[in-house]
Design goal:
- The protein is mainly beta.
- The chain has nine helices and 46 strands.
- Strand 22 and strand 23 form a beta hairpin.
- The radius of gyration is 25 Å and the shape is globular.
- 53% of the residues are buried.
């Protein structure tokens, strides 16, 4: 769509009277990666974040089961498919743990066979892969252009916590963006039969854009991006353009109990960076001085955190705190150095009337010297469009294990926006707990993880790596950070991030967490609106929606659960009746005529049928393929999934109802039918 472009310049008049250049979304891929100044822009209706991964659908922790969790399905070529999505989209993040063999319950052995295992990338239904490369060459950064700093492979030599009686394996991360216009399918071809393996898993995080978005599929001739490489190789300096920045500096003292305003900016603009030098830099001043940020005269601060948290620290009430505050941390957007007393943050933070930065010294020590620098841009240099941009927020959530819930809650928010970063600090928590991120009211986690350290781009507990977008102060689950710079967690109604309590090793249940999430949120209260529901196999509901079905293959009632937590497999259960077919189903759904598109959500049964594909027609027009892909090994007790399809505004604008027709499409991995149990229609508000 035309709104996704390389920094489109649109001339407009502001209250200040002079013409301005408004920033808009850059194109997916490297254009987006080299433009962190675009991070505050709200995503267009129909843009969604997804994650394909290996995970144990029985609700336990056997994510490394090659046949049942790693492989989603086997295609007609006999290749194991691990990723299969229709575009337009961009795969921004790949995390893999496959570089070990299983040598028994307490031993992990390096397996030379993995060197020859191959990974293949098929674009746009082409018969031959555009990339066909060994796992070691690709993730070992030995294949151009998939090299450092975009690709990283752990060498497996760092020690892991002493309670593990195993040798640690290796893991790899790749952030080279793979754009795809129509479809991307990734297959895995082991050198030998890997059915015996119990140590292989992966995560692939990606964005799907509204149909019509201009995306070119990545090719062997794709140009590299020197700008992004330069940004990532120079952490500690602002990754955004600094031309046109205005600089304000001041030096002050802040006594015990004092509150002082560091800066107050008037008019429209955006903060580009905030740097402080703190003396004394102690545990007290780092953790017990509060930083607050107010946008456009708001009474409530959008940022209200202990000072050190804003710059990458945390866990102030845990034993690890004594280690954290004495560290040096350098990432692309935040960092600090205990020895020098320096702290920096490079989040772009727009405002339209005013910005105020406040420091409250709640520590037991006086800050005798605080050197401050803020760099900002006036709207005449960089203007963010009001209504299309979110305010910068940061929220800290402390969750103490009460022994009654099967998870710890890291974040909850309502409204419209996107998550761009997380600081994760825990005590007594087990790394094998999976991430469950629920978005826009879905009972299925749109982001389901395979282990907390994997969610933070590490593996096998991880260690104190510091990379531009991820890393840790000790390991990947007790003191980790991750920046979702391009793989934002997009929400249009609400979002909840939970991490389950694992019991796989028999350790005590639970653990405490102290999590800070950085995000952008719209000022307007408008959110995704539920406009209609259809209960399939309910006669009254079907009649009210003019439901029809062709070539019905099943009619049954299922009692089951959605994705369960290790500590409570049946966390969310229901009984529902539904139908299957290998022909088509049709129905009418009411929508809001003043819309920017429609989200159609379906409840389906994945057990025994992990690949289900239909062609979606709206009022007779072909809008594309609705392609659901998961492993078919989910047990009957864990069968429910809610899955979304985005209908662009060009098919929905001005209409109060839609005639939906879903035509069965045969596909590899399908058992001969698609099924449906319930439908919801959500309308995006007009002018999103």
């Amino acid at each position: 769509m035309k709104h996704i472009k390389t920094l489109l310049l649109c001339m407009a008049l502001s209250a200040g009277a002079q013409a301005q250049d408004f920033i808009e979304h850059p194109a997916p891929g490297f254009d987006a990666m080299k433009s962190p100044e675009a991070m505050p822009l709200l995503h267009a209706a129909g843009t969604v974040t997804k994650q394909a991964l290996a995970f144990d659908q029985s609700g336990k922790n056997n994510d490394g089961n090659y046949r049942k969790a790693f492989v989603q399905y086997v295609d007609k070529n006999g290749e194991a498919v691990i990723f299969d999505e229709y575009g337009p989209g961009c795969l921004y993040r790949q995390q893999m743990n496959v570089w070990v063999g299983y040598g028994g319950p307490t031993l992990l052995l390096f397996n030379p066979d993995v060197t020859n295992a191959r990974i293949k990338y098929y674009f746009d239904d082409e018969p031959q892969p555009r990339f066909n490369v060994s796992m070691d060459d690709l993730f070992g950064a030995r294949r151009e252009p998939f090299t450092a700093p975009f690709t990283f492979q752990d060498d497996g030599t760092f020690p892991i916590p002493p309670r593990y009686d195993i040798n640690r394996g290796r893991f790899s991360i790749m952030y080279y963006p793979l754009t795809f216009k129509k479809r991307l399918k990734i297959t895995f071809v082991p050198e030998k039969n890997w059915d015996f393996r119990g140590t292989t898993w992966y995560q692939n995080t990606f964005l799907i854009y509204p149909k019509g978005t201009e995306v070119e599929s990545c090719s062997n001739t794709a140009l590299d991006c020197r700008e992004v490489r330069k940004q990532w190789n120079n952490v500690g300096t602002d990754p955004k353009p600094t031309e046109g920045n205005r600089v304000l500096t001041r030096k002050l003292s802040v006594g015990k109990g004092q509150t002082k305003t560091l800066f107050e900016l008037k008019g429209q603009g955006s903060i580009a960076s905030l740097k402080l030098n703190l003396k004394p830099f102690t545990k007290e001043t780092f953790f017990n001085t509060r930083l607050q940020m107010y946008w456009d005269g708001a009474d409530t601060p959008a940022v209200d955190l202990p000072l050190g948290y804003f710059f990458g620290g945390g866990g102030k009430d845990y034993e690890i705190a004594d280690n954290v505050w004495q560290k040096k941390l350098a990432s692309l957007f935040f960092g600090y150095d205990c020895k020098t007393g320096d702290l920096y943050a490079y989040w772009p933070m727009p405002y339209w009337k005013s910005a105020r930065v406040v420091l409250k010294n709640e520590s037991s020590q006086s800050i005798r010297s605080l050197a401050c620098e803020v760099q900002y841009k006036d709207a005449s240099v960089l203007a963010y469009p009001a209504g299309k941009t979110g305010y910068f927020h940061a929220k800290r959530t402390v969750d103490t294990d009460d022994k009654t819930t099967p998870f710890t809650t890291a974040f909850h928010e309502t409204g419209r926006g996107h998550v761009v970063g997380i600081l994760f600090f825990t005590e007594g928590y087990d790394m094998d707990g999976d991430e469950f991120t629920y978005i826009d009211g879905s009972r299925t986690p749109q982001i389901h993880g395979s282990g907390t350290e994997d969610d933070h781009n590490q593996g096998w507990a991880g260690t104190a790596y510091q990379k531009p977008l991820w890393g840790a102060l000790t390991n990947g689950y007790a003191s980790a950070y991750r920046v979702y710079m391009n793989d934002n967690y997009i929400f249009n109604k609400d979002i909840t991030i939970n991490y389950e309590y694992s019991k796989c090793k028999g350790w005590p249940k639970g653990g405490d967490s102290d999590v800070t999430v950085f995000y952008y949120k719209a000022a307007a209260p408008d959110v995704l609106k539920l406009t209609n529901e259809l209960d399939v196999a309910n006669v009254a509901s079907e009649q009210a929606h003019n439901y029809a079905i062709s070539q019905q293959t099943s009619l049954k009632t299922v009692s089951s659960a959605y994705d369960g937590y290790e500590q409570k497999i049946d966390y969310d259960t229901l009984t529902d009746a539904g139908r299957g077919h290998c022909g088509y189903s049709e129905f009418v759904m009411k929508i809001d005529s003043k819309n920017s598109g429609v989200k159609l959500r379906k409840r389906l049964n994945r057990s025994g049928n992990g690949v289900q594909t239909v062609r979606v027609l709206v009022d007779g027009e072909d809008t594309g393929m609705w392609h659901f892909v998961q492993s078919s090994y989910a047990p009957v007790s864990q069968s429910w999934v809610e899955y979304d399809y985005e209908i662009p505004a060009r098919y929905t604008s001005g209409k109060s109802s839609l005639r939906i027709r879903l035509e069965y499409v045969p596909s590899d991995g399908n058992n001969g039918e698609v099924n449906e149990y319930y439908y919801w229609a959500y309308s995006y508000p007009e002018n999103w």
